[in-house]
């Protein structure tokens, strides 16, 4: 059993909105810690799951593969997000696969723990809020795919993958190319231009945003 004080930042997770601090701590205490140094798959498309996962630190790559074997990264989830809760609560197989990126810690939350510690009158609205946020994100990404240039898309996704509290993202140029739908060479050129302009800093399989305001200047407006 974990100590919820070690993961106090997860008390603000959207799925827990409306619970008392005691209820939140009780739920986190029922979770199991998985600290994963290398990239590790933990939810597989088409397979059932007995629970969901809080992302305590790091990032999780969410991928969908069609019947022809084509793969697309649909989202990169960050600290504080939860994955797998829709499938865990509905009993449906996983709609996509989840794999941690390097140095990521997740907390496995059994479905029975969610039911035990989150009353339905809180769980249902919170779940609907999460689904609404995902629908809005999908709407924005579809608009980006259809109407925005590659440079606008890369700025948009770098904004989505970073924040004021976490200005770096561990992602390779190949992965970023899959996310925005262009070649690695195009990504390399655009990242080089942003680096030379002082907007970002490039590391080994990582991007750090130095100037969020200038990054946003060339990105599409978001709600």
UniProtKB/TrEMBL annotation:
InterPro entries listed in its UniProt record:
cNMP-bd_dom, cNMP-bd_dom_sf, Env_Response_Regulators, HTH_CRP, RmlC-like_jellyroll, WH-like_DNA-bd_sf, WH_DNA-bd_sf
Membrane-spanning segments: none
Q: Which UniProt keywords apply?
A: DNA-binding, Receptor, Transcription, Transcription regulation
- Biological source species: Paracoccus haematequi
Task: Give the domain of life.
Answer: Bacteria
The cross-references to PROSITE patterns, in alphabetical order and at most eight, read: CNMP_BINDING_3 (PS50042), HTH_CRP_2 (PS51063)
Q: Per the database record, which ranges form the Cyclic nucleotide-binding domain?
A: 15-107
Q: GO CC: one term?
A: cytosol
The protein in question is named cAMP receptor protein
Ranges for domain HTH crp-type: 148-213
Named from the GO MF annotations, one term is: DNA binding
């Amino acid at each position: 059993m974990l100590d919820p004080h070690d993961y106090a930042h997860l008390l603000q997770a959207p799925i827990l909105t409306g619970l008392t601090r005691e209820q939140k701590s009780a739920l986190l205490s029922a979770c199991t810690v998985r600290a994963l140094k290398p990239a590790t798959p933990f939810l597989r498309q088409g397979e059932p799951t007995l629970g969901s996962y809080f992302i305590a630190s790091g990032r999780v790559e969410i991928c969908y593969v069609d019947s022809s074997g084509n793969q697309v990264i649909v989202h990169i989830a960050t600290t504080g997000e939860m994955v797998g809760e829709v499938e865990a609560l509905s009993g449906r197989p996983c709609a996509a696969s989840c794999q941690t990126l390097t140095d990521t810690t997740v907390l496995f939350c059994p479905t029975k723990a969610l039911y035990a510690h989150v009353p339905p009158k809180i769980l249902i609205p919170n779940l609907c809020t999460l689904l609404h946020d995902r629908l809005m994100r999908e709407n924005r990404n579809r608009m980006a795919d259809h109407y925005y240039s590659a440079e606008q898309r890369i700025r948009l996704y770098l904004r989505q993958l970073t924040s004021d509290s976490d200005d770096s993202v561990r992602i390779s140029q190949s992965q970023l190319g899959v996310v925005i739908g262009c070649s690695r060479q195009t990504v390399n050129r655009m990242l080089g231009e942003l680096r030379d302009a002082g907007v970002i800093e490039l590391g080994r399989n990582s991007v750090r945003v130095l100037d969020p305001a200038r990054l946003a200047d060339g990105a599409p407006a978001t709600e």
